TrEMBL record:
Annotated gene: afcA4
Organism (species): Zobellia galactanivorans (strain DSM 12802 / CCUG 47099 / CIP 106680 / NCIMB 13871 / Dsij)
Keywords per UniProt: Glycosidase, Hydrolase, Signal
Protein name: Alpha-L-fucosidase, family GH95
Domain Alpha fucosidase A-like C-terminal: 717-776
Superkingdom classification of source: Bacteria
One of the record's GO molecular function terms: alpha-L-fucosidase activity
Domain Glycosyl hydrolase family 95 catalytic: 300-705
Chain ranges of the Glycosyl hydrolase family 95 N-terminal domain: 38-273
Pfam families in the cross-refs: Glyco_hyd_65N_2 (PF14498), Glyco_hydro_95_C (PF21307), Glyco_hydro_95_cat (PF22124)
Length: 792
């Protein structure tokens, strides 16, 4: 099946935006809510209670203080710099030795060989960093009453309201992607009521100066205590009061007795994402000032309208209603506390889903860098794990909801970034492994390095690039964009496959092709010959084999669609047919390693060996039923030994159970994600804060109500509706979710029974709609809409 999504996307978007609300009213007995707000009755006490705003590049955490307000600012490219990790040239000779040792059963010595001769130095801290702080100190007399702060997900605006001495103060905050400017609007219901001083600061490496009466500039160069000199930055704030007086001195701006005040914040860096070691040379001060002056020519009304229209172009595509429940009119922190104490709150899960979409829109837009470990929101000069791009699940999990949640454009920064790693990845493949193709290990950052670094336990894992390439195929699967498939997806999947073909070796014990030496991400096992000593590397770990199966299968599928038949395709076919597959142990669990090793950490946070269930599609009830029981046993074993204790791990488990069709377990783990791994501002705790759990949880909710990873014998998409619907969501509706095959899907259910479904196809195609045991085949013309209300 071939169809070009880009050719019809504009028509479809217009068609759906006009019909979406009518469709929801038609298919849903509930209709649309006016919620989608996080709100609180007190200011944030700390960073994990503040509310995030962002436009993909420029973000802030808003604390909602009364007498003193802080906006903690971030710009996506403020990173400390070189030196970066380097390849251990010629390491392939030691790799060959380690392989022989593993096949002989000497895992400890193989571990040592890899550590001593292959792994590069981990250089840390060398972190993503905050841009700085904008501090607003207000001249207020009296205690506030009727306080409320909120984040409106519908409009992407944070707001604080309160009353002091009879004056109602309102403060609004948003980050405009149109202007690449943060806008702060301060108003009061009485004239001359706003007096404040504002300043900017940073924890290190900054200078501040005034520019005329109404502007401050702060500039510097990111570093780690003077070392690792990185990106040069500048940020400026412009104050635009109406009425009152304004003055500036000593790097502060003072405003007295204004009727209202608008603050505009811009930021620029010299980071060049196409060539990070050739920074831009533009004058950052001039660039910031230019942005502010351009933005200042627009009225607040115009700025807000354009911001909302731009944001809602993404956000309004999906409307989710999981039903009403007592207590949903309470502040968000009280609702979360109730869930912690055992209450059910479907509306909070609905809010969590839309919050995940909000965070992705706000941290990953076309033209931006991809969302890192903290999206774009980080208050640490030396962030946990450098707030980098961890490619052994975390970066990928950030983008699990992108396609299904109808935010395909937000996936683009991920594609652009992974493509930027190919030159370095090819160099690493040649120097370290003497291999063709490109390779990425467990982590990287904006300097585009790809070397294996640090400890073998986490660093000796050359599968990061291969995993990332599956996202390219997913984008095609959801959009049907054959141009993207031909020009971006197939080339990068091929480069990854070329490395994997060279990397695989024949296991003398089985005659099958295996990967290694490699770790199963961040895990370890007791060695059979050495008692209580443990090792990390093996040959043929389950996750490696599943990722390789996935990559080869995607390459062959793409080649078939593109009608490519050549020697490379034949080589991939031959390798796939002889690839070693994961084994089931004597206890009935899916084996993580090639042998039945005793695990050191039986509740390990990574469930790497289950990749083939989710996000992969190697295992399912129909084609591989013999694996399903083993997978269930593996999950239960991990959980019974304390697994799922990080937010992102728990989110992964939700998706596992959704794929397995286990609604009760998926819902149970969704509640645990909220109760144990979610802060009052709904940020995910690792702990500490990592945003991947938010995105994984969002994907999990979608996976519970819609799945489309299976195909029939002719390659047509099977759209499975309500595959893991919990009894706690008896009545609900959704509009605008995406399914593979190029479909946009809206449906409603009552008392656990599907009542209606409407589908719009982006191309001429066939799909099958599955509801329980009922399967209905539908044939579509391009841009055709069909609705079902009866299911056989």
């Amino acid at each position: 099946m071939q169809y070009n999504y880009k050719f019809i996307s504009a028509v479809l978007l217009l068609f759906f935006s006009l019909g979406q609300q009518a469709l929801l009213a038609q298919t849903s007995p509930i209709g649309m809510k006016n919620g989608n707000k996080l709100w609180y009755t007190q200011p944030a006490a700390d960073w994990m209670e503040a509310l995030p705003i962002g436009n993909g590049k420029l973000g802030a955490m808003v604390f909602g203080g009364v007498e003193s307000e802080r906006l903690q600012l971030n710009e996506e490219s403020v990173w400390a710099g070189p030196p970066i990790p380097e390849n251990r040239v010629g390491a392939f000779k030691s790799i060959e030795k380690a392989r022989a040792l593993i096949f002989q059963g000497d895992y400890l010595e193989a571990n040592k060989v890899m550590q001593d001769n292959v792994m590069g130095e981990r250089i840390a801290p060398r972190s993503y960093q905050p841009l700085g702080n904008l501090i607003l100190n207000f001249n207020l007399k009296g205690s506030p009453t009727d306080y409320r702060r909120e984040l409106d997900l519908k409009r992407a605006i944070a707001k604080t309201d309160f009353t002091v001495n009879g004056v109602r103060y309102t403060r609004e905050y948003f980050s405009s992607a149109i202007e690449n400017t943060i806008v702060v609007v301060l108003t009061a219901n009485q004239p001359k009521a706003i007096s404040l001083e504002l300043k900017m600061d940073r924890k290190a490496d900054f200078e501040v100066a005034g520019v005329g009466k109404n502007r401050l500039r702060m500039w510097g160069q990111a570093s780690q205590k003077g070392k690792h000199l990185g990106v040069k930055y500048e940020t400026q704030v412009m104050a635009l009061p109406k009425g009152g007086k304004m003055s500036s001195e000593n790097g502060n701006i003072k405003i007295t007795a204004a009727n209202s005040v608008v603050l505009l914040v811009s930021a620029k860096t010299d980071y060049n994402k196409k060539d990070p070691f050739s920074p831009f040379t533009e004058n950052l001060s001039t660039a910031c000032a230019s942005v502010l002056k351009k933005t200042a020519r627009k009225s607040v009304k115009k700025l807000k309208e354009e911001h909302i229209d731009d944001y809602q172009h993404y956000f309004n595509r999906v409307v989710l209603d999981l039903g009403s429940f007592p207590g949903e009119d309470k502040p968000t922190n009280e609702r979360l506390e109730a869930v912690i104490n055992g209450a059910d709150d479907p509306g909070l899960m609905e809010l969590y889903f839309q919050y995940g979409r909000y965070l992705l829109i706000s941290s990953s837009r076309p033209g931006s860098l991809p969302a890192n470990l903290q999206g774009i929101w980080n208050d640490h000069l030396a962030a946990p794990w450098n707030s980098d791009y961890h490619t052994n699940i975390n970066m990928q999990m950030n983008y699990w909801p992108a396609e299904v949640a109808n935010l395909s454009e937000c996936h683009e920064p991920f594609f652009e970034f992974i493509e930027s790693l190919v030159p370095s990845g090819k160099k690493t493949a040649k120097e370290v492994y003497d291999s063709e193709g490109f390779v990425v290990h467990h982590t990287t950052d904006v300097w585009h390095w790809t070397s294996p670094i640090g400890k073998v336990q986490y660093g000796m894992w050359p599968m990061g690039g291969a995993w990332c390439t599956r996202h390219f195929m997913e984008h095609y699967s959801f959009t049907g964009d054959t141009t993207f498939l031909a020009e971006q997806a197939y080339p990068i999947m091929k480069e990854s496959a070329k490395f994997l073909l060279d990397w695989l070796v024949t296991d003398p014990r089985s005659g099958k092709l295996v990967s290694g030496p490699s770790t199963s991400p961040e895990n370890k096992f007791y060695t059979p010959k050495n008692g209580e000593k443990f090792a990390n590397v093996d040959m043929g770990n389950a996750m490696d084999q599943e990722i390789i199966w996935d990559n080869f299968s995607n390459v062959l599928e793409a080649a078939k669609i593109l009608k490519i038949e050549d020697a490379f395709v034949d080589e991939v076919k031959a390798a796939l047919s002889n690839l070693s597959l994961p084994k089931i142990g004597s206890d009935g669990r899916l084996m993580e390693w090639s042998q039945e090793f005793d695990e050191v950490d039986k509740g390990h946070r990574h469930l790497s060996h289950l990749y083939g269930l989710y996000p992969g599609k190697q295992f399912d009830k129909k084609k591989t039923p013999y694996y399903i029981d083993a997978i269930n046993r593996s999950i239960e074993h991990r959980l019974s030994n304390g697994g799922g204790h990080t937010g992102w791990s728990r989110a992964w488990i939700i998706n596992f159970y959704a794929r397995l069709g286990n609604a009760d377990k998926a819902y149970e783990n969704m509640k645990v994600l909220l109760a144990k791994s979610t802060a009052t501002n709904l940020f995910d705790y690792h702990p500490p804060f990592q945003i991947d759990g938010n995105f994984g949880g969002t994907a999990g909710i979608a996976e519970m109500i819609l799945q489309s990873h299976e195909t029939d014998e002719n390659g047509n998409t099977i759209i499975n509706l309500l595959p893991a619907l919990p009894s706690e969501w008896p009545t609900g509706s959704v509009s605008g979710l995406k399914a593979r095959g190029g479909f946009e899907v809206s449906f409603a259910w009552e008392n656990g029974v599907l009542k209606s479904v409407s589908l719009i196809s982006s191309g001429a195609s066939i799909c099958k709609v599955q509801v329980g045991d009922s399967i209905t085949e539908l044939v579509f013309a391009t841009a055709e809409k069909q609705t079902l209300t009866e299911f056989k």
